[in-house]
Amino acid sequence: xEISTQPPRGTSDILPGQSDDWQRLESLAKTHLQxxxxxxxxxxxxxxxxxxxxxxxxTTDIVSKEMYTFSDKSDRSLTLRPxxxxxxxxxxxxxxxxRQSPPVKxxxxxxxxxxxxxxxxxxxxxxxxxxxxxxxxxxxxxVEVIVVASDFLKALGIEDFxxxxxxxxxxxxxxxxxxxxxxxxxxxxxxLCADCRDRFERNPLRMLDCKVPTCQEQYKDIPSAxxxxxxxxxxxxxxxxxxxxxxxxxxxxxxxxxxxxxxxxRTAFEFVAKDSRLGTQSSIGGGGRYDKxxxxxxxxxxxxxxxxxxxxxLLMLLPDKSLSALPVFVxxxxxxxxxxxxxxLRRVGxxxxxxxxxxxxxxxxxxxxxxxxxxxxxxxxxxxxxxxLAKGEATIKDMKDGSQKVxxxxxxxxxxxxxxxx
Length: 422
Known about the structure:
Layout: H1 18-35, E1 39-40, E2 46-48, H2 49-56, H3 61-66, E3 69-71, E4 77-80, H4 85-94, E5 104-113, E6 125-134, H5 139-155, E7 161-167, H6 174-185, H7 194-202, H8 213-218, H9 231-246, E8 252-253, E9 265-273, E10 283-289, H10 293-296, E11 304-310, H11 311-317, E12 328-332, H12 335-347, E13 352-354, H13 366-375, E14 380-384, H14 386-391, E15 393-398, E16 404-408, H15 412-421
Parallel strand pairs: 1-5, 7-8, 12-13, 12-14
Antiparallel strand pairs: 2-4, 3-4, 5-6, 6-11, 7-9, 9-10, 10-11, 14-15, 15-16
Helix pairs in contact: 5-9
């Protein structure tokens, strides 16, 4: 059987060069999120299927159409994770984190899996970065997670986005709003798509999330959930908007935004980028409050809020940057000496490269090695010619201005350390 070198449809390789951007984003995320008190959690890439059916919601497209589900050798139903929150909640309970003083603040990153038609910014194996905060009831923690997300985007150099806000109510007011939707939409069912007609009885709120233009036409005059909140939800909503604005963020109120997951209560938000590179997929991330999910999984009543960003989409929006300059390249006709010098410099923390000849070839001449150093945008070249090796010296060439300095080989690492690392 012939082996295909193509990756499976909807997946891609992250190649050298591309991985530099991934590492930069991941490093910035770690610094930024942990500075705000969020601790990293790593959960399995597959879970028991029921976790997602109950947590994400059987009426969602994710559960009904998009999950990668399989049976293992013991006939247990397992699913590749389609999102990160359900696994975090399970781990939160399994590890007893719910017994810690609130809020318990976590962050995660990693691959997720959904079977859907690949398109710009949307693949079958995609990557998410997210945070979850457990244990705080009021709108202040909602505002924190929104501000942390907004500041993270700006730290990445992504500036042209808006924060869309909505409130979905809770168990006290949402049932009445659902019935209102059914009342308003019953006579329009023949004008709606098959998915919306299916959601009409099971979860009419999800109808508003439909992306079919003809369906959205039918929803233009539908009352918003914000106008039908109970007193507690309304108080939470008004304070949320006030606090977000006080942080210098101008939210866009979007009463049609319900998110694609069933577990949200009250606060829902999305970050929407204005960038043609995303095509029609303008949402780069979002989240909201899910105050009943921990209890649904068998834990104590625990308010919670969080968000997730599509890392693949964020990378599409990163400002163009030239390749990072290589600090040092070692040039020598003696490969053994070049490797020994590179190893010494690496051990003191200086990224260093050297020339590796092709199969069956001797070391390339100095001119070819200098060309390679230029391709890698080396800041300095360490030259170890026959004269330098005989005298125990090294010539350091500054590739920006062409100046050269001779130092003893024993002082090379300390000298370059001061120039490059300090």
